[in-house]
Design goal:
- This protein has 419 residues and is of the alpha+beta class.
- It has 13 helices and twelve strands.
- It has helices spanning 80-91, 123-129, 136-155, 195-198, 212-216, 222-238, 248-257, 263-266, 272-281, 293-308, 317-323, 338-343, 354-392, and strands at residues 2-4, 11-13, 22-24, 31-33, 36-38, 41-49, 53-60, 65-72, 101-107, 110-116, 168-170, 176-178.
- Strand 3 (22-24) and strand 4 (31-33) form a beta hairpin.
- Residues 316-336 and 412-419 have low confidence and may be disordered.
Length: 419
């Protein structure tokens, strides 16, 4: 196989170099990676690895665009049919915050998905690499985008069941998209999770965001996703997970010990409605968490409205209901006096007499009448002149023919009887 250097355009023969190996151009010393031929794709480098698959940055040769290729690991080939089925379900979603899946298939026994490539890193890498806390306004916007993606999938009865920062991907403009709906759950047990057996599999940071009922009873669904959403954005906005620990057993102990710290104790500029929402999403009892993504989106909308108009404090649904109360229960409601209301209105203007109204209309018609008379005079004068010249003047004596109208030219030169 031959490739060209992206820096100096030098053609290089890399047939003897193993794929996905870094080399230096012998001409300009630029670092390059030898791609791997994968069907109609070229795999350029590995960009991530999870429980189920390995993700590569690739190039779609036919469309000449960068893509992300998720390849199922060899040890999990038993779930290949469920892997393809989950990908087909997600590909039916048309939400701008869901990572689109372009295609899927199998090459040389390897099952793969082709997805949009997001060059802006994942939220997990942002949390790991950023030295300062993420802006509150940006984090709130990402919370809204993630919630809208989950709500769109819930309408199609597609749970995520693995909401972690590594599955929230960003582009270069900071736009967020959610990936891997239901994929990691393919290799997890359907019932309770034995912490000793899965300690090696569920290591932090993934275990930081796992709902406690998933471990103890195996319960899955909206409440589990709500806990993962709250734990992810608690970490994003506070700079630390709500239930830190080195093992799954230690993390579950912290979950059952009590609620996490109030986010405002870790970061004072966090709005109170947001802190209350995060703590509610992280409650131990699943039924005490928000029962619908609309509750989360309502708080996000209030926070965004308050950011655009800082003088107005954010309100929740309960606050808006209280505003509908007109007066306290023990005080009479004031009644408006109809007579006083009518007396404050201005006096009506009296109608004009009929003759005055008729005179105004006739005065408006005067210019039109004058114009009609003028046109009639002009047309009448022209018509009378033509009629007089053709029918009257030829029968008059010669003296009477000296009229102001011009006579027509004679038709013949024959001499008259008087001559």
């Amino acid at each position: 196989m031959k490739i060209r250097c992206f820096s100096c355009n030098q053609k290089l023969d890399v047939s003897d170099v193993p794929p996905l190996t870094s080399i230096a151009c012998p001409v300009c010393q630029a670092d390059m990676v030898v791609p791997k031929v994968f069907g109609d794709l070229l795999l350029e480098k590995e960009i991530g690895s999870g429980l189920l698959s390995t993700v590569y940055k690739g190039m779609d040769v036919a469309l000449d665009r960068e893509v992300a290729v998720k390849v199922l690991k060899e040890e999990h080939k038993g779930v290949r049919s469920d892997f393809i089925k989950a990908a087909r379900a997600v590909s039916s979603l048309s939400n701008p915050h869901v990572l689109p899946i372009y295609s899927c298939g199998e090459v040389e026994g390897s099952v793969f998905l082709i997805m949009q490539y997001m060059p802006g890193r994942s939220l997990e890498r942002r949390l790991h690499e950023e030295k300062e806390l993420l802006p509150v306004t940006q984090t709130v916007a990402w919370l809204g985008a993630t919630t809208r993606a989950l709500a769109s999938a819930r309408e199609r009865e597609i749970p995520h069941l693995d909401i972690i920062p590594a599955n929230l991907l960003l582009d270069l403009d900071g736009n967020l998209k959610v990936a891997d709906f239901g994929l990691a759950n393919l290799i997890m047990p359907k019932g309770p999770i034995d912490s000793e057996a899965f300690d090696a599999l569920l290591q932090p940071p993934r275990a930081w965001y796992l709902a406690p009922e998933r471990v103890t009873t195996g319960q899955q669904g909206l409440a589990m996703d709500m806990h993962g959403l709250g734990a992810t954005f608690y970490h994003a906005i506070c700079g630390q997970p709500p239930f830190p620990g080195a093992t799954l057993h230690e993390i579950m102990q912290r979950c059952f010990a009590g609620p996490p710290k109030d986010p405002r104790e870790l970061r004072s500029e966090i709005p109170a409605p947001l802190a209350t929402l995060l703590l509610r999403m992280l409650t131990l009892t699943p039924t005490e968490r928000p029962g619908d993504y609309g509750d989360v989106l309502e708080v996000v909308a209030d926070l965004e409205t308050a950011r655009r108009s800082p003088r107005q404090a954010p309100t929740t649904r309960s606050h808006r209901r209280k505003k509908l109360v007109v007066s306290p229960r023990n005080q009479p409601i004031p009644v408006l006096n109809p007579q006083s209301a009518l007396s404050s209105l201005p006096a009506p203007t009296p109608p004009r007499p009929p003759l005055v109204t008729l005179g105004l209309w006739l005065w408006r018609l005067v210019p039109i009448i004058l114009a009609i008379i003028l046109v009639a005079l002009i047309l009448g004068h022209a018509t009378h002149a033509a009629w007089y010249t053709k029918w009257i003047r030829p029968h008059l004596p010669v003296q009477a023919q000296e009229a102001p109208y011009p006579s027509p030219a004679p038709e013949s030169s024959a001499p008259s009887a008087s001559q």
